[in-house]
Each structure stands twice: as structure tokens, then as C-alpha cells.
Amino acid sequence: MEVITAKKAGFCFGVEKAMDIVEKQISDNDGSYDVYTCGPLIHNGEVIKNLKAGGVHVIENDEDIDSMETGDRSKKVVIRSHGVAKAVIDKLNEKGFEVIDATCPFVKRIHNTVMQESHKGNGVIIVGDPDHPEVRGIMGWCECEPIVIESTEDIDRIALKEDTKYCVVAQTTFNHNKFKDIVEKLQNLRYDVTVVDTICNATYERQCESREIAKKVDTMIVIGDTHSSNSKKLYEICKDECEDTHFIQTLDDLNLENTNSVRLVGITAGASTPNYIIEEVQKHVRIDF
Ligand code: SF4
After folding, report:
1. Ligand 1 pocket test: which of 109, 203, 228 has the largest number of ligand atoms within 8 Å of its C-beta?
2. Does ligand 1 come within 6 angstroms of the Cβ of 271?
3. Structural domains counted in the chain
4. What pTM does this model have?
5. CA–CA separation, 183 vs 261, rounded Å?
6. Residue 134 is a catalytic residue
7. Pairing relation of β-strands 33-38 and 2-5?
8. Is the CB of 268 inside a 6 Å radius of any atom of ligand 1?
9. Is the shortest distance between the CB of 12 and ligand 1 below 6 Å?
10. Which of these, 28, 38, 98, 135, has the minimum number of CB atoms within 10 Å of its CB?
11. Distance (Å, whole) CA 200 – CA 106
12. Are residue 162 and residue 88 in the same domain, yes or no?
């Protein structure tokens, strides 16, 4: 079977960097410290299972931090690429834990922007999903109460002040076109807004490339965790272009039917899918069909 695999499939720069940092902490560990990540490192059950086997513990919430004792072993806490609120880092430092910040530089740039803008007395509008950890982290760097919106309709529901300047930023994985519509509506309503487009190109480029591949192939395979929003989005994009699109987490989930009529298969993967899973699927499709 002929296969086209997206060049941008799998770990993005930020996730790769965070993975490298945690893997180094595991390999350097002479048994004298414990390694933690603030939340699961990435949205991929397979990877989390492997990290757990390597001795990495996951801090799920604030209460977990409260209950952690310094004890006689040092603790190293890695902040994942999504980033966390400033208060979380402060709390970890206060408890005497070593904080290793693997926040993606693109997310860090948003933290710095909202911190500086709110410090100047400006309002902050974050365009994104208010329940997403990245957005909750960004909110936690504002020195004001930020406003979070996800759609143009949300603008009608919020109370913006005529005499206040607002800085608008976006969750890194937010849809470009939706962000443009939101900004346009805010500007048309004559609010004083400064827009910082913080959408990460890694996501956009992966989506564009996957869409182009899905247009050409008979069958499309999207590999990603069911909890990964960027993988689900990739699936939707590919499904729009190629009816026979499959969303799988690992090779075990792959169930291709009627392969007699399939000549060309496309493969893409979300930002939290490790390379070895992509390679396994690619090899299987190429050789076994
Ligand atoms: S998607 Fe972009 S912003 Fe998010 S971790 Fe990856 S490189 Fe960083």
C-alpha cells in the first residue's frame, strides 16, 4: 500500500522539549530525588504509562501540592508545555521543591504579555477554552481579572468598558479564522484593543498539511489520544476531506475494511503522539496491506 505520512505529524517543538527534560531527569536520577510533573506531561495515555514506569509522579491539583512533604528526599517538579499559573510556581518554590520550567516558549510569551499589560492597568481578553489548562495558566499570570471568550457570541455576553484598553491574546491552539472573526467584532464595536496573535503555527501547519493529504488519499488515519483536543480537531479536518478517516490511539485500534479499493493511505498525528507509534502504524499499513 502506498502511504503519505505528514511531515509535521507528532510531537511539536514544545512537547518534544518537555519530553526531553523529563527523560533527562529520569536518566540522571541516582535515586536521590523524586520526579513529578504538574499535570500529565502530554495528552497521551501510552506516554504517561511509560513515564510512570520510569518513576514519574503526576501532581493532579493544588491539594496534591499541599499534601506533598519535603521529607529527606528532594523533589523536582517539571512544569509541562501548557504552563501553569504563577501562584502554582510560587507555591512549589515556597515548599522548597526544585521547579524545572518546561513551559513552551510560545506559551511563556503569552504569560509575559498578559502580565505586562495587566500591570500597566489594561484589561486582558483571552480567546480560548476557559477549562483548558493552558488558558487557566495564562489567567494566572494576569494582575487583573481576565475575560475569557470562545466565540463572537460570547462578546455580547461580556461587559467591556469603553474607557479601558484591552489586550487580546489567544490560546495557542485556537482556530485562526475564529480568532480573526472575534477580533474583527471587537474592533467593529470600537473597543480599544491591542491584538497579539499568539496562535502557534505548529498546530496550524499540521492542520493545513493534514487537510492537503486527506484531499488526495482514499483512507486517512489520524493518530492521537481521545483526550487530545488538537488530535480531535485534526480528525474533524481530515474527515471533512476524506470520508474514510480513522481516529486511532495506537496500532491496536486500527481496523481498515475494504482495503481492496484503497490505493493511497494518509497518516497524520496530533502533537502528543510519539514517533514510535506513528512509525508502527506506517510500517503496518505499508507492509501488511
Ligand atoms: S503546540 Fe505550539 S505552543 Fe503548544 S506546545 Fe507545541 S509548539 Fe508550544
Report:
1. 203
2. yes
3. 3
4. 0.87
5. 45
6. yes
7. unpaired
8. no
9. yes
10. 28
11. 7
12. no
